[in-house]
Amino acid sequence: MTPRARLDEPLSRALGQARGKNPLSKLGLETVGDLIGHYPRRYDDPGRLTDISMLRAGEHVTVMARVVQATVRSMRNRRGALLEAVITDGRHHLSLTFFGKHRGSLYAHEQRLVPGSTGLFTGTVGLYRGERQLTHPAFMMMGEDDLESDEDMLAEAARPIPIYPAVANVPSWKIAKAVRTVLDTLTDADVPDPVPLEVRARAGLPERLAALRKVHRPDSMADVRAGQHRLRFEEAFVLQAALAKRRARATGRPATPRPLAGAGTGRTSLLADLDARLPFDLTSGQRDVGAEISAELAGARPMQRLLQGEVGSGKTVVALRAMLQVVDAGGQAALLAPTEVLAAQHARTLRALLGPLAEGGMLGGTDNATRVALLTGSLGAKAKKEALLAAASGEAGIVVGTHALLSEHVQFADLGLVVVDEQHRFGVEQRDRLRDKASAAPHLLVMTATPIPRTVAMTVFGDLATSSLTEVPAGRAGVTTHVVPAGNERWMDRTWARVREEIDRGGRAYVVCPRIRPDDDGGGGEDGMETLPAAAPAPDGDAGALLDPGEAPAAAPLRAVLEVADELRGREQLAGVEIGMLHGQLPPADKDDAMARFASGDTPVLVSTTVVEVGVDVPEATVMVILDADRFGLSQLHQLRGRVGRGTAPGLCLLVSDAPPGGTAGTRLEAMVRTTDGFELANTDLELRNEGDVLGAAQSGRSSSLRLLRVVKDAKLIEQARTEAIGVVTADPDLHYAPELADAIAEQLDAEQEEFLERA
């Protein structure tokens, strides 16, 4: 039997169950490999009881506690019997309730629940007359395990107790028993190790099976730490090897060099002409990053670069200068944007910056002018035909578009540079489909307006070199942020009065809502919104992973664009003010009209979904009101705030929320008030959020490839694994001599998972 076949063995067979009967399938555990990869969530000390005061109603929990009493009695008002028990952590008490048809059916439980004995109890926390209780909890008392001798019992009593992510009817100790059964049958030959021997030796790591035993069956917490360290390294190593392979594959194809246009070519440089007409000076960061990009564009290996920066730091100008260098060298550039609103905004911005330089073949255009074409799915037949022809003929040196650019009907004369804006909205296949439209490997510039902590960039975008813009162009007045309590009518009146004051000064105001219609379930249509879900029970439940009380679902329904627009039209503070609307389900022409009327001031208040989150640039906009602000992530709040204060007038951001202070949602809002530094907010976001969400690890239908790795705490380990992985892939690009590593990459990072990884 091959190692892979051993790990692929169905659990029903491995556990001696009837064919097809797998009690762990509710957890998505179908094979031996699934089970040994289901790591404990925490470990209980046999001598330490769970803090019962931390339990929250609605949570599915596993607690260790001591029995105080257990009594069976007949029910007063109906037939049947009731077993009432009380358990304690030494300070607080928790009731257990069991119902039965008759007293005898409950005596077995009563005999096990001996006062003074300790056990593990799992169930959903409920409230009865204001007191916490577990109804019909599953439980296991210490000493009930099947052990062969007193020595075994003593050894077991001293071991840390693994507490696994569990569900109802599959308590943690049943998972632990299944894990023990499987581990006892495995040998090193059954468990492929993706970390090569020489790497393990340099890093001082045990073999994989030994690490698994330390994690699942530890003799001490030192075992746990050693096993987890090894498995964290493995996760980082496999991921970094996958990124190294992708980087090697991308740079393996030759690119057409696109050097800066030099003097004496007989043709004026578009890039030089742009620099001469810019109404502002480039920041030092823009100049430095521009020089990096320029040098790579001139090379014969395709550039692979991530450009990240603060909101308003001038990424678009840097990207435009790179595109013009390629156009000057005879090539074309494509800019891929995630939404039609953003694509149209980019096209307008580029044309405005270029002026006559973007009017090639038109009256008033310069001799060396090019064209900026816009291609989206909703264009009319005539406009689409013109855009397709401009791209295919090379008449358009710059082609801006949405997913429509990926269509097989789109062709380029000589595609030399692909710019992807807001990379997290696209997957690997989409990015590569556009690059495949070039005869030689095009250069790639990925832009993100969400500042990424270094460790996340290294982990998620490890196949890209990273450039960062941290300066904001001179002349911007900045943004002040306040939290407004949604339930306080006086504060809300002042909010809309403040909006009116800004409008009377010539400003504009965004009002952002998480939904389009009041009856939406929060999806928001085509806006690509990423509002946080309502709180839900943790999958395992245990007292160490309880929901923060500040994350409970809001009692009031989420605000919606249509109802808020109607409400504002009736507000005394905004009497006589035109209110516009913008959301992803509007026809493209209506979207363009809404933005144009907002920019001109015809409708100075725009009620919108997060479709305005990135790229939208209206310098006159000075107020951003975000309703239900606690339902948005930090990066999204930061992007929304970045839509105001882009001109010379100061900006104001009002976060309307009823989230209590101290909870996770409240902490997010407090961070927004405290700083406008996107990199600081990104680190705060990483600390607050589940890292699986940050890294895009919640793959559909598959277990996460990152289970123990923490990109903040494990930064040094990630760097170590990255160095080792690059060395292995450089020496053996196809991993002929590391087949276990190749298999791990294929299994953990298949095409679907790679797409999630890219969209982190």
From TrEMBL:
Cited InterPro entries: DEAD/DEAH_box_helicase_dom, Helicase_ATP-bd, Helicase_C-like, NA-bd_OB-fold, P-loop_NTPase, RecG/Mfd, RecG_dom3_C, RecG_wedge
Superkingdom per UniProt: Bacteria
Span of domain Helicase ATP-binding: 296-469
Database matches in SMART domains: DEXDc (SM00487), HELICc (SM00490)
Keywords associated with the record: ATP-binding, DNA damage, DNA repair, DNA-binding, Helicase, Hydrolase, Nucleotide-binding
Domain Helicase C-terminal: 531-692
Keyword Hydrolase assigned: yes
GO MF terms held by the record: ATP binding; DNA binding; DNA helicase activity; hydrolase activity
Protein name per Swiss-Prot or TrEMBL: Probable DNA 3'-5' helicase RecG
Any one biological process term the GO annotation gives: DNA repair
